[in-house]
Specification:
Elements: E1 3-9, E2 13-20, E3 25-32, H1 39-56, E4 64-68, E5 72-73, E6 78-80, E7 90-92, H2 93-97, E8 104-108, H3 110-121, E9 130-135, E10 139-145, E11 148-149, H4 181-184, H5 186-198, H6 217-225, H7 229-253, E12 257-261, H8 269-282, E13 292-295, H9 303-310
Parallel strand pairs: 1-4, 4-8, 9-12, 12-13
Antiparallel strand pairs: 1-2, 2-3, 5-6, 6-7, 9-10, 10-11
Helix pairs in contact: 3-9, 5-7, 6-7, 7-8
Length: 315
């Protein structure tokens, strides 16, 4: 039986897990990312945690360490100036970790890791061509073509969340306007709902007394499933935009499937019915029937660690 370490680096916490080759997380732990401003002490504490995970589970060796991180560069093994980390600069995880343990270290961004996790441990087993969209605070994506994760010339390929969907549209955190993320992320869904609610003077739905600042995409999804018309229109509009983006993605990659992952995708019918409709409407006819829309089969609480661990399986 072989094992790997999967590490998910977030702005708040760094989650780590010892993963068995069948995709079972044997043990996990975490440290607060935002407690660190210096790189070397942070990596030392990560490696101490890894040593404890291995010792506590009688594991003497691992295949490697996979890392999913914001601004992660597969080619260099570095996190490049991630804005949401308190440790600034170019952080060479591969070089620093190998000072402690002589194993393979593979790093990529978190959406790429999730996609590869789906390939190795989830519903994409046996597929050579697919795309994953991750909907959360932002919109990430990972693209697998001919069985290989697409990184491009810079290591940063596949940022479909930052493809411009609406020219001169909503302001995006990337500095541009109209990115897919501004319409289909959790934040985008909330913005759409608040805009529609203001445009509906007689609105008396479930969320009528909730201030804009307190509304979440989950609340909107729950309201949509309870029959709230404004919430339903919100998810229908979200689905319309996401369907266009997915249809566009098919034209350059001809995937067998598109997988969806993240909180907003769990709403069910209010999202999925109009999404399928929009996708089919905007899909180029030569691709009709060639690409399925599927939900990720990875557990939401495990996908980040499993995806990171899966990276070491890359050819």
């Amino acid at each position: 039986m072989t094992y790997a370490i999967g590490i998910d680096i977030g702005g708040t916490n760094t989650d780590m897990g010892l993963v068995r080759e069948d995709g079972t997380i044997i043990a996990r732990t975490n440290i607060p990312t935002n407690a660190y401003t210096e790189f070397q002490p942070y990596v030392k504490d990560i490696m101490d945690c890894i040593a404890k995970l291995m010792k506590g589970n009688n594991v003497s060796s691992i295949e490697g360490i996979g890392i999913g991180a914001p601004n992660g560069n597969f080619y260099t093994g570095c996190v490049d100036n991630a804005p949401n980390l308190t440790i600034k600069g170019v952080l060479n995880f591969e070089e620093e970790m190998r000072k402690y343990m002589d194993v393979k270290v593979v790093l990529s961004n978190d959406a790429n890791a999730a996609a590869y996790g789906e390939l190795v441990y989830g519903g994409a087993k046996g597929l050579d061509n697919f795309i994953m969209f991750t909907l959360g605070t932002g919109v990430g994506s990972g693209i697998v073509l001919d069985g290989k994760l697409v990184h491009g010339s810079t290591g940063a390929a596949g940022e479909l969340g930052h493809a411009i969907l609406v020219p001169e549209g909503r302001q995006c955190s990337c500095g541009r306007k109209g990115c897919l993320e501004t319409y289909t992320s959790a934040r985008g869904i909330v913005q759409t709902f608040c805009e529609l609610r203001k445009q509906t003077p007689n609105y008396n739905g479930k969320l009528m007394s909730v201030p804009d600042k307190d509304i979440t995409s989950k609340m909107i999804g729950d309201a949509a499933n309870d029959g709230d018309l404004v919430a339903q229109v919100t998810y229908a509009r979200t689905a319309y935009y996401l369907g266009i983006a997915m249809a566009n993605a098919v034209t350059f990659s001809a995937p067998q499937a598109i997988f969806l992952l993240g909180g907003p995708t769990k709403v069910g019918k209010p999202l999925m019915e109009p999404l399928v409709e929009s996708f089919k409407k905007h899909l180029l006819n030569i691709y009709e029937g060639s690409c399925e829309i599927r939900m990720s089969q990875l557990n939401a609480n495990e996908v980040a660690i499993l995806g990171a661990a899966a990276l070491i399986k890359m050819k």
